[in-house]
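ugh ok fine here u go
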Amino acid sequence: MVLNLRRLSGKSSRSSTGSQDLTNFISPPPKEIPSPLEICSPLSPDDSVSERESPRRSLRKSSGSQSQALLPSPSKDSLVTETGESLWTESSGSTIPGPGAITGRVIKAIGNIAVVGIDNVIIKRRMATYRTLFPHGRYVDQTEDDGWEMYSEILEFTRPGFYPPSIRKDALDLLMIQINIRETHQLMRALDEYFDHEDFRAFLYQLLDLDTEASQRASVNTFASEEAKFSASIPLAIFIFRLSFSQRRSHRIAVNSFLLGMCSMKSLLGDHLLRIFKFGQDSDYLDSLEDCPPEERQTLWKVLAYLRPGELLYLEERLRSRLARIDEILKQGPVKVDLRSVCYDLIEFSRNGLEHLMENIRVWAYSRIFTFLARGGIFWEALISTLAKVPHGDQYRIMSRILYCTLPALNLSPGTLDLELVGAYHDAMQSVFSPYDESRIFDLFFRFVIQAFSTQGSLRAALMLDQHFLSIIILCLAPPPPPSTSDEMLRLITQTYATR
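structure:
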């Protein structure tokens, strides 16, 4: 088909009828500036209908809603007539020949590809410049802008449907660098200012896709340790939890809907997110884990151990409130709560994992465990039943600390004597046995070990595997006169057949 430039101009070949019809709708153009398209030859009579519609279309584009008010809607007859006439078109011999429809589309597509290619080259150069600034700390360049323009452009490049996958992946990889090192202050600021609800939601699911790909690569890597696989998604989970405190309500709603979607997915990221959100929002979540397998509770504490000071103040405050609750329970006369949940907390707090969040938390936890030991009765029962359910490593760690604090001379390994724990042990014992009586403390310790040994299960096996505890058990089952000094007790333990 040959392009009819006359038709594109919207002029009629009829000098009187067509122009009179048009004057009812559009005022004629100024005569002193004739259109250059009027040079072409007149249109054929069959083109009159299309000619009348052309100025209508141009008017709609130029004047918007005003044109709709001026132009009447076409009737059914006119639509039938226009459709019928549009099937029969003629080409004037005097028109300028142009490319066909298919050829024109190809030329346009090639032009678009060239433009997109040039844009991609420019974007990649910008990304290469930004890549030199990653990773960075809380501040990018200490200027007034401080990286806001950079982050707004990188976030723009992550929008799906607007940029090629390679560019979106490069932009997301840069942002993941900051997420993994846990320096996301500038990123969170740019997200609040630049992304609306839909863009923010799409951004979350793109992060999920990246984490899924990383997990799949780690699963086929036989040399990656289980600890590395477990911890790979924790920084992203902490970042998403921080986004739930966004100043924009639409972003908080997007995070909540994202979390609901993660509930139906089996992934480490989803598990970490659910644990963090439950611990942060449900004050009774730790107590509810008593009837769960111990691994579930330990996994939560492992995730919390990855927190940095000041990173999630809300969770740190929740931990401190837990400490205050334990002290309040120990101050009560008759205890009205289940002490096993307190023992679980004390065993987890006694690890070294939370020392960076709360100073001296480990010594504090052991001092409360020693208080359980000194009080006896229901406190012994709670502590022993809790130790029977925790892993072997925790059993040996707690029981050996009790043994070494009772008799520090048994701690023969150089550099492992913890004087802070010994001091906490003596303080706990003096609170019950005043004045401090070594023989009574030894008797208390012997009875506690025998009661722990009588418990069926892993705790008995753990005590029998340790030579010192096995010697103590033999002494208790066939007791000589009870030792009254630490030297005598050390001699009895080290001279038994089990030790030799």
